[in-house]
Amino acid sequence: MTRGLRRRLTSYGDQDFSLFLRKAFIKAMGYTDDALDRPIVGVANTYSDYNPCHGNVPQLIEAAKRGVMLAGGMPMVFPTISIHESFASPTSMFLRNLMAMETEEMVRAQPMDSVILIGGCDKTIPAQVMAAASSEVPAIVLPTGPMDTGNHRGERLGACTDCRRVWAQYRAEQIDGDEVSEINGKLASSVGTCTVMGTASTMATLMEAMGLTLPMAGSAAATSAERMRLAEETGRAAVAMTETGLTTAEVLTPAALRNGLVTLQALGGSTNAVVHLAAIYGRLGKKLDMAEFDAIGQKVPVLVDLKPSGSGYMGEFHAAGGVPRLLSELTDLLDLSAPRAFGGTLADTVGTQSQRYEDQIIRSRSRPISSSGAIAVLSGNLAPRGAVIKHSAADPQLLTHEGRAIVFDSVKDMTERLDDPSLEITAEDVLVLRNAGPRGAPGMPEAGYIPIPRHLARQGVKDMVRLSDARMSGTAFGTIVLHITPESADGGPLAAVRTGDRIRLDVPGRKLELLVSANELAARMADLPPPPPVPERGYAWLYDQHVTQADDGLDFDFLMAKPHE
Ligand code: FES
Ligand code: MG
Fold this sequence. Notes:
alpha/beta; Glucose Oxidase, domain 1; 3 domains; binds FE2/S2 (inorganic) cluster; binds magnesium ion; ILV_EDD_N
């Protein structure tokens, strides 16, 4: 394959002239021929003033460039979209595929022999790995790393499980407006990603377990010297990958993908990872088998005691040995022969761990946080193609529950009526939210964490059964059924539920049932209101026409690879 600046020449009909032009222009940046006659490592820059989770990207770029140059390569930094959870409207998920498309095409369009993908906030690593899986350029992921924790009156705080807990206390009038404002300045105490086992940490650590980051790169703190050294080492690795590198599709073998599923269950990781992994599978022409994922969950214990399932923060996970230490507890359940993007196998990652003492944060198999995994897959007449629940973060007493449905037709409807005292809700009721799925909202917002109605919160109610076609933040907790598929706006039976219906949740039996007869359900389905109008133009139109359901990861149908298994 042609390498360096000769790679992917724009054709003016004369390849030598194309190279001549390319060199003439790039020399305007001050490069010499010697600098240009080397393997080129692209570095995706996702810095943005709107993205504090990527606030350390400029320093990471400097360190990665240093590593590339020390190893004899030429780094070329290029910008891509940057998406932050709180600054992307209508949802960051709505924009993930746009980022994946943009990253894929920029990696393909510009000359680079390997690429370093720097990212961290929830949708970034998924978008980048989806792009890489569709690209032939060897790629290595460099996560930005988790933020530091803060402290309020002696209590540690970290975004964003504590954001939710504190806000719930404020809603329940346990803390006042002054204190909640004071805490606001302490929740995200440095740049970097949310410091619990939310989606960002889950995806970064999964990529480490799947061979796409250097060992420990999934968890080192954003502000640490170790993070910068990992960036430098990533730069060096990326140069070696220009010679020997596997493509991401070659790294993500069936063994690597399955290792990802095992690790997700053991981490107590985010439900959002199920959606992102399904999208990555789709880029490889495969379908994430939800039954297999559930079966893995029945064998794999949760070993990591981090919020929201447990009590710690990412700093402790890293100190306890991070992913290599976790994987060393799971060797019988993993395939350690899975390759890594930068050479060697997962066995080499496990071999880097030196921690052998008993630890509270990464437990040994004899002392799990819970003996079965974090996430269960449900099905039934309400979720014909599945739904998920993070049962490790739920009230165990509610995992088998039957109650009266209270239905909200949209996120707006829920926001307007949830706290209305005239709406009679008891703690035994089942809160149902619909039209919050991939097409319905659009963008499948993280609205599945339906707040406890204010009057019940004041009475001390902390958890209720809640269900929706939405997602939930990986930093949230509760007895919450998510990703009901198909969604209500795409012909799912969730659209037919009425307030007053009975709903049965049976997590041990993996069932979610609406207790009405098949005939009644069919009659209701035939009598649904018309779907909302299709957006008229632009990305919203493209999204609406091509987004897939949660079981295909919300990727666009035209971006998925043709099945080849
Ligand atoms: Fe970016 Fe949580 S908001 S990782
Ligand atoms: Mg999140």
